[in-house]
Design brief:
The complex is a heterodimer.
Chain A: H1 16-58, E1 73-76, E2 88-96, E3 99-109, E4 117-123, E5 129-136, H2 188-211, H3 223-229, E6 240-242
Antiparallel strand pairs in A: 1-2, 1-6, 2-3, 3-4, 4-5
Chain B: H1 5-15, H2 26-32, H3 36-59, H4 69-91, H5 93-99, H6 103-107, H7 110-118, H8 125-155, E1 157-158, H9 162-166, E2 175-176, H10 190-215
Antiparallel strand pairs in B: 1-2
The chains are: A alpha+beta, B mainly alpha.
């Protein structure tokens, strides 16, 4: 005689909730990694377009014939004050027939009212500003946000300036004897940007020789041997490398 | 017992409105409503996630055991939000630039978890979908109203940058009432959000009382 085996329904088993949770997590993870694979290249393209657009605003369109994004100069920066999460500052160089016509790089203005302000500076080889844009900021809406190009043309007052125009002591707001307008009700914000731009220009002046080294187009295969060849012991490079990096 | 469709619609949009009656989802609400356009975008994105979450939870409600339902709801919602975030970043990038900051906030939107637990888990597919849609639209309504009040008082515009969010065809609804300098800055800051929300809730109560007295 058969004794009927009592089988509990699946859902009544003690292990069911755990298995269910595990299965759901597995499903969720695979969905997410699938989606990541599908969207990865499209997102990278969009980000490159964004970067191209903001570079286009600080480097005038005409006057160069290379792909700005193709080979940025990568410079290791102090990780604490780094403008980028990976600690590498990217300097984008616009060239015409191999000759550098303009450079663009990011700069942090630490003294903003709502935290650091991220700037993008475009300069010509002599250190004259071609354009400045604010990439991101947390300034008070309505007071400090006049630094956005969409809200006011204040940021254009930097165009054509350089470290000796105006004189160093005049690199501040008019209220303090400087050359630049302050905003009604907000002095800290424009001052922070002015000091940030000035610091960027000073950095450029210090690094000018390195930043303006001619770009030698190298075939990819020769890259590895080239890195050891070009390191001439007589010129002391700071940690600096010319890499074809897809990272933006 | 499943309520009638009419009742679901009324509850979602007005009587049991997420913001004005349940006081849920205040974090994303106050964070994004400095303009009506931002509110609209956030509302629509939340509605999409809300619909998908209602669909999944209602379909799987027989499978999900009661003991682990909350972590499973959270997994479902967080996955949906991340999928929407990735998809928007890749394919509607301009909109993602406007809303990108706010999308992760949808995960913490108690409206979605609340409706999954209170409604979708206990009702069949169709009512659950309708409830999701109506709650989402009710939330959108609250976001747009609050955004409009704050935007008009704070920066003197209405639906600024709508063209950026909805496409150039909609740039016609952008209205400028007065120059931004004369705006009431307070309304754009977080305290202004609380003030405007309080006033809107009071207005809703007054309206309901007036209707009640009239019918009594």
């Amino acid at each position: 005689m058969n004794i009927p085996i009592k089988t509990k329904p699946l859902q009544a088993r003690l292990s069911y909730p755990g298995l269910l949770l595990g299965a759901t997590a597995l499903l969720a993870t695979s969905l997410l990694s699938g989606m990541h694979q599908v969207t990865k290249s499209a997102i990278a393209e969009r980000l490159a377009e964004d970067l191209q657009a903001s570079l286009g605003q600080v480097i005038p369109d005409a006057g160069y014939d290379n792909d700005l994004l193709a080979s940025p100069l990568l410079i290791k920066t102090d990780p604490i004050n780094s403008p980028t999460p990976d600690g590498l500052l990217r300097v984008y160089r616009a060239t015409r027939q191999g000759e550098i016509r303009a450079l663009a790089f990011r700069q942090v203005a630490p003294g903003g009212y709502g935290g650091p302000i991220q700037l993008l500076l475009g300069v010509d080889p002599n250190g004259k500003l071609l354009g400045v844009r604010v990439l991101s900021h947390k300034e008070t809406p309505g007071l400090g946000d006049k630094l956005e190009r969409a809200k006011s043309d204040w940021i254009e007052s930097f165009t054509g300036r350089s470290l000796d125009n105006p004189t160093p002591s005049q690199w501040t707001v008019k209220k303090q004897g400087g050359q630049f307008d302050q905003f009604t009700g907000a002095t800290i914000t424009p001052k922070a940007v002015i000091l940030g731009v000035k610091a960027g220009l000073q950095w450029f002046e210090q690094q000018q020789r390195l930043l303006l080294l001619p770009i030698v187009p190298k075939p990819l295969a020769a890259l590895e041997s080239a890195t050891s060849e070009t390191t001439d012991p007589s010129t002391h490079y700071p940690p600096l490398e010319d890499a074809h990096d897809p990272l933006l | 017992m499943t309520p009638s469709y009419r009742q679901i619609i009324g509850d979602g949009l007005w009587y049991n409105n997420v913001v004005f009656s349940q006081f849920l989802a205040l974090c994303p609400l106050l964070a994004v409503t400095s303009t009506a356009t931002n509110g609209l975008g956030m509302g629509l994105a939340s509605t999409v996630v809300m619909l998908c979450s209602s669909l999944l939870v209602s379909l799987c409600r027989k499978l999900i055991s009661k003991e682990v339902r909350i972590p499973i709801f959270i997994l479902i919602i967080a996955t949906l939000v991340t999928l929407v975030d990735l998809a928007m970043n890749a394919w509607v990038h301009e909109m993602h630039k406007v809303l990108g900051l706010f999308i992760p906030l949808i995960v913490t939107n108690c409206m979605i978890l609340g409706r999954a637990e209170a409604f979708a888990f206990r009702h069949p597919l169709l009512p659950a979908l309708l409830d999701g849609l109506m709650m989402g639209l009710g939330f959108t309504l609250a976001l747009v109203l609050l955004g409009a009040v704050r935007e008009v008082l704070g920066s003197g515009t209405l639906f600024a940058h709508a063209g950026l969010l909805l496409g150039p065809a909609f740039s016609g609804i952008e209205i400028t009432l007065f120059a931004a300098d004369q705006g009431l800055l307070l309304m754009l800051l977080p305290p202004g959000g609380f003030l405007a929300l309080g006033l809107l809730i009071a207005a809703k109560r007054l309206l309901e009382r007036a209707v009640q007295q009239k019918s009594a």
